[in-house]
Every structure is written in C-alpha cells, then in structure tokens.
Design goal:
The complex is a heterodimer of chains A (457) and B (326).
Chain A: E1 2-6, E2 13-14, E3 17-22, E4 28-34, H1 41-44, H2 53-56, H3 65-79, H4 86-112, H5 114-117, H6 129-136, H7 138-159, E5 168-169, E6 172-173, H8 179-209, H9 212-219, E7 228-233, E8 245-249, E9 255-259, E10 268-272, E11 279-283, E12 300-301, H10 304-310, H11 317-330, H12 340-360, E13 380-387, E14 390-398, E15 404-410, H13 412-431, H14 439-450, E16 455-456
Parallel strand pairs in A: 2-16, 7-12
Antiparallel strand pairs in A: 1-3, 3-4, 5-6, 7-8, 8-9, 10-11, 13-14, 14-15
Chain B: E1 5-10, H1 16-22, H2 26-34, E2 36-39, H3 48-52, E3 59-65, E4 68-70, H4 71-83, E5 84-90, H5 92-96, H6 108-118, E6 133-136, E7 139-142, E8 146-151, E9 161-163, H7 170-182, H8 198-201, H9 250-253, H10 271-282, H11 293-301, H12 306-310
Parallel strand pairs in B: 1-2, 1-3, 3-5, 5-9
Antiparallel strand pairs in B: 4-8, 6-7
Classes of the chains: A alpha+beta (457), B alpha/beta (326).
C-alpha cells in the first residue's frame, strides 16, 4: 500500500491535507481530506458579552469575516428581538454585497482562476496571480486592482476595517453614511458592473469556454456529484445573500425543503469522524449515509453553484441572462459540475453589481436613523447569511446579564465538507492510474476542492 | 543580487492577516517582483517539501501569523526559525495569542465536549472525537495534537520583530517589508508600530474632558453611541488608554470602541491589568469621588466579562496566561 500526501493544500483559505492510498496495482483505494486544525469558537465564546459576538466571530475566517460579522449581527437582532431601521438594513446589505463581490473576485483571480487562465498543467511556479496577469495583460491587472480597491472602499467606509469590520450592532449599525460616501459607492457599483461583464465574464468566455480541454473538464465526469443543494432565496425564489428563506432542492432540482432561520435545527445535523477536526453537515431528514451522493444521501452542497441550483433565477436582468446561458451550456438545472462553481461565482458578481446599483440609488441610504435600541431581555437568537462560499448559521443563548451561555456555528465549509471529500476522492480515482503521479495530476485533484473555495481556518 | 527568500505562514489564525497582505494589491504586486516568496499557501503552490529543502538561515524572513494551538504548528514554526534569519510575529494572534487565545479560559476536553459532542446540531451518539491516530483497514491517518493551552509565537520560538494588529494595518505592513528589504531594521524585539497610546492619536481626543468621572458603565446596545464623544465619557469600555496606536483608529472612526488588538505600548508587561487600572482611574474609582464602597463595587460589577474584555487579544501573553487547570 502506497500513500501519497498533498501538504499543504494551496490556493485555499486555511489549512488542509490530502492523503491518497493506492492499492498494489497503483489504483486509488481511498482518498482523505483532513483538516488538521481547530480553535473552538463554540466554547470560548461562552462567557463573552452577547454584543461582542460580531467583533469576535469574524475571526472564524478572515477571508469571510464580513459574513460572520453579519450573521452575528442578525443573530443579535433576533436575540434582542429588535428590528433595524430600514436604512440600516439597506446599508448592511450594501456592505455585505460589496464584500461578496470583493471576495468572489479575490477567489477567481488569486485562488481558483489560475487553474484555468494559466492552466492546470503549467508549472506550479506560474499557477498564481502573477501568471494570471502575464496571461490576461496589464489592462486587466489595472482594472482588477481598481475594482477591488473601490469595493474595499465601500466596506471600509461602512465597517471601519475590510478584514474584521465592526459596524454591526443589535438593531442596526454603528453610524450612518454621508451623501459624499453614497456618491462614491455609486461609482464603485458602476465600475463593478463594467468589470463583471467586460473583464471577468469576458475572460471566462474567451479563455475558458473557448478552450475545449477546459470545457471537457467542466462538463465531464471527473468533477461531478449529484447531491442536494442549499441557498438563501427571496420571496420570488431568487438568489439573495443577506436575507430570505433557506431553500433546498434535490438532485433532480425539485424543491425538497424551504424553511426559516428559526427552523434550521429541524433540517441540518452534523456528523463527526475521528480522522479530521472538521464536522460534516447533512440533511437531518435523510440522515448520514456516509460519503455518497444521490437522492438517498443527506449530503448537500452550498456556495455559488449550489445557490444558483437552489434558486429559480437571479433578481437582476443582466445576471439572469448569464444565468440562463450557463444552464443552457451545462445541459439544464440543476448542474452537478463542481468546476462550474467558478462560473456561478462570476454570475453572482454580476448580480451583486446590479443589486449594489439599486441600493446606492436609494436616497434613504443616508438616513441618520440607523439603529433601534433593544428593550427586551434576550434568551436566544439565530442568524443566517450566504457567505461567499455558502450558507452560514449562528445561534446564541444568553443568561440574564446578556452573557453568552451557548453558541452553535455552522460554516459553509462544514456544509460542503462531505461533498468536498467525495469530490477529492473521485478526482483522485479518475486521475491516478498505475501509480503514476505528477505535480500536474495532484494539482488537478486540488482543483476539485478549490472550486468550493473552502475555508479551513 | 539574488532576491531575498520570504515565507508567509499561518498557524492558529483566521487567514485575515494574509488577506490583509493580498489587499495591499498594487503595492503587493510591486513588492512581489523584489521578493522570492518560497512558501505562502494562500496564493502560491509551494508544498512542505519545498521548505524542508532549504538550508538553515537560507530564508531571509518568515512572516508568521497565528497563535500556536496544535503540535504541527509548533513543529512548523521551529522549522521556520531554523531556516530563517528573521522571524516576524505577524498580527495579534502571533504577537499575543489573539482571539483564539480566549481558548485559554477552557481546556482541550471542555472544548472537544462542546464542539464534537454537545453542539446543538451535532449527532454523535458514539461520542467520537478527532484522534491523533486513526487506524483504517488500508493504513493509518494522523492528526496533530490539540494542546490545552494556546501560546504566543515567542513562547515557542525566539521572535525578532512584532507587527501588531488584527489584522496589521496596511501602512505598517508595507513599512516593515520595505525596511527589511533595505536592511534598515530597529533593535531586535521591537514592535513595528508607533510607541504611542491610542488615546493620544484618537480623533475624539480634542473633545475629551480632563478628569473624566463616570457614574455608570454602559454597554453599546444600551445607548445611541455619540459619533464624536470619547467612549469612556459615554460609559462605554474602550481599551484606548492601554493600547498602542498605529491602527489608523479604524474602529473608532466606524464609531466603535477599541478592543486592544494592537497590544500595549512599550514597557507594559500585562495589557489587561494596565487596561483595568487605567480605566479604573479614569472612572474615578481611585479617588472614589465621594462614592460609597457599595457604589464602587456596583460600578466594577457593571463591567461584564472583565477578563474576556481587557484580555480580548492578549490572554496567552498575560501574566495569567490561562485559567487555572483543574
């Protein structure tokens, strides 16, 4: 028995290791994706003041700190039973969308994209942002720097810091925004619309979809698992990142469940294995059947493609066009192609640019009324948002002094953990034969998990 | 001249420090040309074998973020220490333990109990917890040990410089990188940030009254926060008096009080004690200003979670280091 180790996994947030066991003939017997790390937020948040949770939990993941910040602020709204003023909700959705777009572009250009724009078979030294720039050109470089800078400008103006923002409080946000800021946000949103269509999706069309080898990889069987999909949807069942109902579709695309944040414990459970510090989410009503796909298995996916699969469409016109184009190319809904997560990520970025334009055009955005002070003695609260890479749940319980006595956290990567393990094993089994392993093959195995953009911090 | 070999690596961290480096973007892309980054798992495809191949001292500088919580993190930082001329503790977690350092209020067992057995969504009737060694029918899998106690980087290896903040501010990161490239380095052990208290650079300093005396402690959800008034004057706990400046007062400008991520100014042994005594004096507790003993007690009692607040980012670096083990 031979063992191949990929350590550390790279172009991902956080830590992870892949262990591949080969049989005597050099074929893959099993492959394991291990998370060698735990910090224990669920425990050490106990004893902390409830209102500090949006300032502590962002450290779960620095890449998606705004997602934990916002899930936490929403959990506090529910905990203190206080509704934020309308302007505060809009400002929260605005910073939130700016953050998702900033993160999606970071993922595409720095983490996942190099495998396509530079190519999975190029030497390791070139498979990175520098390689992307060399291939895509200086104009793209300039625009990428500019668009991410403007998005960070929005996040910083509202949240104080890009990594670990601080604005969220129960019942609203810490300060209003000025008219001058709103105007700069309009320019950022306009720039993002242009960038999404003419740079990001254009690169995808020209450098990925026009390359037969890549299209075969995206649509082929190496990177495919038929699972359930989960995502937040609005009243019209369209994708929403900040708020809505949680919808789950089955592997045939039929609605399996639609529920509110309050009910999440009726739908999700987590499984524990001894060989990793990660926990594995599954659908409670189907149960844990192991690392298998199909209708009988409770394994589900979250994140860009899962959100699009779980929704009936996009809430904005341009994004809807690209959404339809993608499903047409992939042969209909739901799409089970793991590598199409990258594609979905860019379509979501376009949606966000359009949604940001709607939000920044609203004069209410500069209202001075951005917080309602709570009056109720809290006991328990739940909050949910769509993080860049999937649905995230926060639940807090408090004592009489508004001190945390219990915390439950489910991150996107926990939700995707079982599917990620399966994707890695399938890629390994498809790509390694007769013990023949190269840097290029190992990278193509890592591509199976990079698509999910997991965070294992 | 060969480009200096540089490492960015994270231990018990959130990845935010590395995201902050990525966010330097234009400056980063320029600097990338001047450096030979030999390990940085977030954006680059180098593996452990690449590091193991280096000779002692061949790496010019390793920027290490994160506290030390797991055994493999300890091994890795020891390897990097050996291979590197300079070690920079990058960010609050490496510097003082940071948010993961709050784990020192608990033990490995109580953390595992909650995370793997008692979590509200966990279904684990057999009580399985992660094991350092798992025997499978086809071989064995290994996990690093989860320690009882979180350590700062300098409790595990000698550290040359500290870059504070959660995450460190962009200008301080660029200054540090440029100074190292030019070889213009301060004395060993220096914190690469201005040696001033946050209160001295606070945008609200001008409005601050002399000799504040507070009769009531407030929590941020209990009052509408003034956008210009000193937080302490409003009765809101702010760690400004005991915290180093250089952060650009980013939280204060977003109308939220300081939580101390930049660590203390030079010469302070224990940030939490310093914060508590500074705030106690500001609150008028020392003079007691005509307060009865009961009133003083009540005021102190109104500060909820003092340990978790005053040591928010520095529990492992404190004199206490952790809560007492049973």
């Amino acid at each position: 028995m031979r063992k191949i180790t990929i350590d550390p996994i790279t172009r991902l947030e956080g830590h992870g290791r892949i262990e591949i066991f080969l049989d005597g003939g050099g074929e893959v017997e099993r492959a394991y994706f291990q998370i060698p790390k735990l910090r224990g937020f669920e425990k050490f948040c106990e004893g902390r003041p409830a209102e500090e949770m949006p300032r502590i939990t962002p450290r779960i993941c620095g890449g998606c700190s705004t997602a934990h910040h916002m899930a936490s602020a929403k959990a506090l709204d529910d905990l203190f039973k206080v509704e934020p003023p309308s302007a505060a909700k809009k400002i929260r959705e605005l910073i939130y969308n700016a953050f998702i777009a900033e993160h999606h572009l970071f993922h595409f250009f720095y983490l996942g994209g190099p495998d396509f724009i530079v190519g999975p078979r190029t030497p390791a030294r070139e498979r990175n942002i520098m390689g992307v720039i060399a291939k895509a050109g200086m104009e793209v470089r300039g625009k990428l720097i500019e668009v991410r800078k403007r998005l960070r400008g929005v996040i910083e103006a509202i949240g104080g810091k890009v990594v670990h923002p601080v604005c969220g409080l129960p019942g609203g946000i810490s300060k209003p925004i000025t008219e001058e800021e709103r105007k700069s946000f309009i320019r950022a949103a306009e720039y993002l619309v242009e960038f999404s269509v003419f740079v990001a999706l254009d690169l995808w069309d020209n450098m990925v979809l026009k390359n037969k080898e890549y299209v075969d990889l995206i649509t082929g069987d190496i990177y495919k698992h038929k699972t359930y999909y989960m995502g937040l949807v609005d009243e019209a069942n369209k994708v929403n990142f900040y708020d809505g109902h949680i919808r789950v579709v089955d592997p045939n695309g039929k609605e399996f469940a639609k529920f509110e944040t309050q009910e999440y414990l009726n739908h999700i459970r987590e499984h524990v294995e001894p060989w990793t510090y990660m926990r594995f989410s599954y659908l409670k009503n189907l149960g844990w059947k192991g690392f298998v796909d199909g209708e009988e298995s409770g394994v589900f996916k979250v994140g860009p493609l899962a959100r699009l699969n779980a929704a009936d469409g996009m809430a904005t016109p341009l994004a809807q066009e690209y959404y339809e184009k993608m499903y047409e190319a992939l042969g209909g809904k739901p799409a089970h192609n793991t590598l199409a997560f990258h594609w979905a990520r860019l379509i979501e970025t376009l949606y966000i640019s359009e949604r940001m334009l709607e939000l920044v055009g609203d004069p209410e955005l500069t209202s001075p009324e951005v917080i309602n002070l709570p009056t109720e003695i809290p006991a328990e609260g739940k909050g949910v948002v769509e993080a860049p890479e999937g649905t995230v749940f926060h639940q807090y319980e408090t004592d009489g002094r508004e001190i945390i006595s219990g915390v439950n956290l489910i991150t996107p990567t926990q939700n995707n953990a079982a599917a990620i393990c399966m994707s890695i094993e399938k890629a390994a089994k498809s790509l390694i034969h007769k013990g023949d392993v190269s840097d290029e093959i190992l990278n193509m195995i890592e591509m199976a998990l990079r698509a999910y953009g997991p965070c294992n911090a | 001249m060969a480009k200096p070999k540089v490492v960015f690596y994270g231990c018990a961290s959130c990845g935010g420090c590395e995201k902050a480096v990525i966010d330097l973007e234009e400056d980063l892309l320029k600097v990338l040309d001047a450096l030979d980054i030999v390990l940085w798992p977030l954006p680059l495809d180098f593996k452990m074998k690449d590091i193991e191949a280096f000779k002692d001292g061949e790496i010019v500088v390793s920027f290490i973020n994160g506290a030390v919580r797991m055994s493999d993190q300890e091994e890795m930082v020891k390897t990097l220490r050996q291979r590197s001329q300079i070690i920079v503790a990058f960010g609050s977690c490496a510097h003082m333990g940071g948010i993961p350092g709050l784990g020192n209020f608990y033990t490995r067992d109580t953390i595992f109990q909650r995370v793997y057995k008692e979590g509200l969504s966990v279904e684990n009737p057999e009580g399985i917890t992660p094991q350092e060694r798992t025997a499978l029918d086809i071989g064995e899998l290994y996990l690093p040990e989860f320690y009882d106690t979180v350590k700062t980087l300098d409790q595990v290896i000698p550290v040359d410089y500290y870059l504070p903040g959660c995450p460190p501010p962009p200008d301080l990161i660029m200054n540090a990188v440029n100074d190292i490239l030019k070889g213009e380095l301060p004395e060993k052990g220096a914190v690469l940030a201005p040696n001033k208290a946050l209160c001295d650079t606070c945008p609200r300093a001008e409005e601050r009254r002399e000799g504040i005396s507070i009769k009531e402690i407030k929590r941020p959800q209990q009052i509408k926060l003034s956008p210009w008034k000193c937080f302490l004057e409003q009765g809101i706990i702010c760690l400004g008096p005991a915290t180093r400046s250089g952060c650009g007062e980013r939280c204060i400008r977003a109308n939220m009080p300081c939580r101390g991520c930049m660590g203390p100014v030079k010469g302070t042994i224990d940030q939490g004690t310093k914060a508590f005594s500074m705030i106690a004096s500001i609150l008028g507790l020392e003079e007691e200003e005509g307060m009865t003993e009961d009133e003083v007690k009540r005021l102190i009692n109104d500060i909820v979670d003092p340990a978790g607040t005053f040591y928010r980012f520095s529990m492992p670096a404190s004199l206490l280091k952790r809560s007492r083990m049973e």
